[in-house]
Design brief:
This protein is α/β, with parallel strands linked by helices and about 375 residues long. It has helices spanning about 20-35, 40-50, 65-70, 75-85, 90-100, 115, 160-175, 185-200, 235-240, 315-325, 330-345; strands at about 145-150, 175-180, 205-215, 215-220, 220-225, 230, 255-260, 295, 305-310, 310-315, 350, 355, 360-365.
Length: about 375
C-alpha cells in the first residue's frame, strides 16, 4: 500500500471552504475511491493513471496534475474526488476500470442509490463468479468437510515458520480442517499421508474436497525431506487418485507444492515497463485414474523457487495477500492466475542478481472450485 491519508477538510483552489454538505460528500467520495484504488496492483495503478489521461470526460486530466497530485493512492483519490464535477468521478472510474480491465469492481460504482454510495468495499462478499453460472452442476459441491494435509520442512529453510503461519491462516479462512506434519523423514511422511488418505476413505460420504500442501527443498519430480531423502511427487499424487482414494471420486484434489524444481535461475528480460504466484462397475460410469486434480508449483520445471528468510516463500505470501484483498470470489484457477500476476510483476533479487519466477498449474478439474 502506498500510504493512507488522514482526515481533514478539503478546500477549494481559491482558499475558500466549500459548504459543509459538499465537503462531507467529497470526503466520502475520496474514501470510496481510495478503497477501490487499494485493490489494484502496482501494475494496475500504473495503467489506471495512463487510462485516466485519455478518459473522454471534461475536464481532461493532465499529465502534470497527475504527477504533482496523484503520485500515490491517497493523493490520486483526493484528486479524483475534487477535480471532477459532482457525479462525474464515478463515471470516470467506471470507464477506467473497464479498460484495465477490473470489471469485478464496477458494481461498487454503478449504483446511484445512497446506500450503495456508503458501502465499504466488501472484499469477501463481492459477487462471486459462480453466482452467474447457469447451473449448480458447473461447480463442485463443497458443502461437506474440507480436509487438508500441511507438510513443511523447516530445517535449513529460513522463513518456513512464516509459511506455516500463513498457510494455517489461509486454510482456516477457507474452512479446512488440517493435519500438520513438520520435518518428517521419508517413512514418516509416507505413513502420515497414507493415514490421512485412509481417513478420507473412512468418511467418504462426508468429504467434499482435499488439499495437500508440501513445502520443502526439491528438484525435478521430487521433494526432499529429513535426511535429504527424496520423495516422488508422482507417488504422492497417485495416493489420492480415483483407484486409491474412492472418497475423492469426482471431488477436487488440490496440491500446492512449494519447492524448487531444479537449479536453473531465470534472470528475466528487460522490457519497456517500469519495475514494479468396488461395486459392480457395469452399472456405473468409469472415471480416468487421474481426474479432478489441481496442482500448483511455485516455478517452472528445472528452476529454483524463491523464499525469503524472514517473510517466507514468494508464492505462499502472494496467495495470502490476494486472498486478503479479494476473498474467495474466484474459481481456484482464476485465483492462482491473480497470484501469478502478482508474482510475475514483482522484481526479486538472489545473490545480488535479478531473478524472475512464474507459477505453473496443472489441472484435470471437471468443474469450478470455490472455497
Amino acid at each position: 500500500m502506498e500510504g493512507s491519508l488522514g482526515g481533514g477538510l478539503l478546500s477549494r483552489s481559491d482558499g475558500s471552504r466549500p459548504p459543509l454538505e459538499t465537503t462531507l460528500a467529497m470526503e466520502e467520495l475520496r474514501e470510496r475511491v481510495q478503497k477501490t484504488l487499494d485493490l489494484l496492483t502496482p501494475l494496475e495503478l500504473k495503467s489506471f493513471r495512463a487510462c485516466l489521461k485519455k478518459v473522454d470526460e471534461e475536464p481532461r486530466m493532465s499529465q502534470l496534475r497527475l504527477e504533482l497530485e496523484g503520485r500515490n493512492i491517497p493523493g490520486l483519490a483526493q484528486l479524483l474526488a475534487k477535480y471532477y464535477p459532482p457525479g462525474a468521478a464515478p463515471r470516470v472510474l467506471i470507464k477506467v476500470l473497464q479498460q484495465l480491465p477490473r470489471t469485478d469492481l464496477l458494481p461498487l460504482w454503478q449504483s446511484d442509490s445512497a446506500a450503495a454510495a456508503r458501502l465499504a468495499i466488501p472484499k469477501k462478499i463481492l459477487k462471486r463468479s459462480y453466482d452467474c453460472v447457469d447451473s449448480d452442476l458447473d461447480h463442485y459441491d463443497l458443502s461437506g468437510r474440507r480436509q487438508a494435509f500441511l507438510m513443511c520442512v523447516k530445517k535449513n529453510r529460513p522463513g518456513a515458520d512464516q509459511d506455516v503461519l500463513l498457510m494455517e491462516h489461509w486454510l482456516g479462512q477457507c474452512q479446512f480442517e488440517y493435519m500438520l506434519c513438520t520435518d518428517p523423514d521419508k517413512k514418516e511422511l509416507q505413513d502420515k499421508l497414507t493415514s490421512f488418505r485412509d481417513g478420507l476413505n473412512e468418511i467418504k460420504d462426508q468429504i467434499s474436497c482435499c488439499l495437500v500442501t508440501l513445502m520443502a527443498h526439491g528438484e525435478k519430480g521430487f521433494i526432499k525431506v529429513k535426511g535429504d531423502d527424496r520423495v516422488s511427487l508422482e507417488d504422492i499424487f497417485e495416493m489420492f487418485n480415483n483407484k486409491n482414494c474412492p472418497a475423492l471420486h469426482k471431488k477436487p484434489k488440490i496440491f500446492i507444492v512449494q519447492a524448487c524444481r531444479g537449479e536453473k535461475r531465470d534472470n528475466g528480460v528487460e522490457t519497456d515497463d517500469e519495475p514494479m504466484d468396488s461395486d459392480d462397475i457395469s452399472e456405473k460410469g468409469r472415471l480416468p485414474t487421474f481426474s479432478d486434480y489441481f496442482i500448483v508449483y511455485p516455478t517452472q520445471p528445472d528452476h529454483v523457487a524463491l523464499r525469503h528468510p524472514r517473510t517466507g516463500s514468494v508464492m505462499i505470501g502472494a496467495m495470502t495477500e490476494v486472498f486478503r484483498e479479494h476473498g474467495n470470489k474466484w474459481h481456484i484457477a482464476d485465483f492462482f492466475t491473480k497470484v501469478n500476476n502478482r508474482v510475475v510483476h514483482t522484481d526479486y533479487r538472489l545473490h545480488e542478481e535479478p531473478i524472475k519466477v512464474s507459477l505453473v498449474t496443472e489441472s484435470t478439474l471437471t468443474r469450478f472450485v470455490y472455497f
